[in-house]
Design brief:
This protein is an alpha/beta fold and 293 residues long. It contains nine helices and 13 strands. Helix 2 (43-52) packs parallel to helix 3 and helix 5 runs antiparallel to helix 6. The N and C termini lie far apart (50 Å).
Length: 293
C-alpha cells in the first residue's frame, strides 16, 4: 500500500451518508497512513463530533449533499457545515465532494474551502486531495509562525532602542494586535495599583481610576501561574478591572501576564470582538511568547 505524503498522522472527519462508503474510506486512510479518522452520517452528528473533540480536526472531508439529521432528505449543506466548522476551528481544512450536476464551487470558495471536487474515481485520488490539504495547512502554519517572529523582533527592537516607556507600551499592544487579534489593552502595576496605559484596535483609552491589584482576581491569578488564560462568556468569577466578556459583548477574551525579569509587572486583555474569530490554543502560545522578556 502506498504511503501518504504527510509526515505525521492527521485527524480527519469524514461526513458521508452512505455507511459502506464511510467504511471503505476509513479503512483506506487508517491502513495507508495511520490517520486518526472519525465519521458522521449527517450534519448534526458531524457538528456534535466537532464540538466534543479533544482537539481540532486537521481535515473535514464532507459530502455536499447531506442530510441535516438522520432520516431526513439530503440537501446541499456540506459547504455551510464546513463554514460552521471553520468558524470554530480556523486551522481545519475542508474538502467538499460534490454530486455531479449539483456543483457550486463559487459558494465553496467564499466559505474558505480548500478543495471542492466531484467524487473521486478512486481512494488514491481522494488521498491526493487530503495530502494537498495537509501540505496547505502546514504552509499556512509556517506563515503564521513567521509573522509571529517578525512581530517579536519589532517589539524587542523597541524595547532595546532609546524610546520612552509609552512608546514601548504602544509598540507592544500594536504588536499583539498584529498577531491577528482585534483589540488589546495593557495595564501596568504601579505600586499597589493597576493603571491602563495603552490600547490598540479601536478601544477608547479613558481617564480611568486606578484599580488595586489585590482587587483584580485575573491579575492575581496571572501572578501565580505566569501563563495566559482564556475567559469565556458567562465565566465572570475572574473578570478583571476592565470588565468581563459579558459586559463588553465578547464571546471570549485572553488575559495574559506582562513579564519582565521573572516578575509580572502588568497584564494584557486581548479579544476578537469585531471578527468573532475563535481563539485557538496556538493564539495563547504566541501571545505568551510575545509578552515574556
Amino acid at each position: 500500500m502506498p504511503q501518504s505524503l504527510s509526515l505525521s498522522p492527521a485527524r480527519i472527519l469524514i461526513v458521508e451518508d452512505q455507511e459502506r462508503q464511510r467504511e471503505l474510506w476509513v479503512s483506506f486512510f487508517r491502513d495507508r497512513s495511520c490517520h486518526i479518522v472519525e465519521v458522521a452520517g449527517d450534519a448534526d452528528e458531524a457538528w456534535q463530533r466537532v464540538t466534543q473533540a479533544s482537539e481540532p480536526y486537521d481535515i473535514a472531508l464532507i459530502e455536499d449533499l447531506i442530510a441535516a439529521k438522520s432520516g431526513e432528505i439530503p440537501q446541499l449543506m456540506g459547504v455551510e457545515l464546513f463554514k460552521k466548522i471553520k468558524s470554530r476551528s480556523p486551522s481545519t481544512e475542508g474538502i467538499i465532494l460534490a454530486t455531479r450536476g449539483w456543483e457550486r464551487p463559487s459558494v465553496a470558495f467564499h466559505s474558505r474551502v480548500f478543495c471542492y471536487r466531484e467524487y473521486p474515481s478512486s481512494e488514491t485520488e481522494l488521498a491526493l486531495y487530503v495530502d494537498q490539504a495537509l501540505e496547505h495547512q502546514k504552509l499556512q502554519s509556517s506563515a503564521r509562525e513567521s509573522k509571529v517572529l517578525e512581530q517579536l523582533m519589532v517589539t524587542r527592537t523597541a524595547l532595546l532602542g532609546k524610546r520612552n516607556l509609552q512608546e514601548v507600551l504602544d509598540c507592544i499592544v500594536r504588536g499583539v494586535r498584529d498577531l491577528g487579534f482585534d483589540r488589546a489593552r495593557l495595564f501596568l502595576k504601579d505600586g499597589q495599583t493597576l493603571i491602563r496605559k495603552a490600547e490598540a484596535g479601536g478601544i477608547e483609552l479613558l481617564d480611568e481610576k486606578p484599580q488595586l491589584a489585590t482587587d483584580d482576581p485575573s491579575f492575581l491569578l496571572l501572578c501565580k501561574t505566569f501563563r495566559p488564560y482564556l475567559l469565556k462568556r458567562g465565566e465572570n468569577c475572574l473578570a478583571s478591572s476592565d470588565g468581563s466578556p459579558d459586559q463588553e459583548g465578547e464571546a471570549e477574551r485572553i488575559y495574559a501576564p506582562l513579564i519582565w525579569g521573572g516578575e509580572v509587572i502588568g497584564n494584557l486583555s486581548v479579544d476578537n470582538k469585531y471578527s468573532r474569530r475563535p481563539i485557538a490554543e496556538t493564539d495563547m502560545n504566541h501571545l505568551g511568547s510575545h509578552l515574556t522578556r
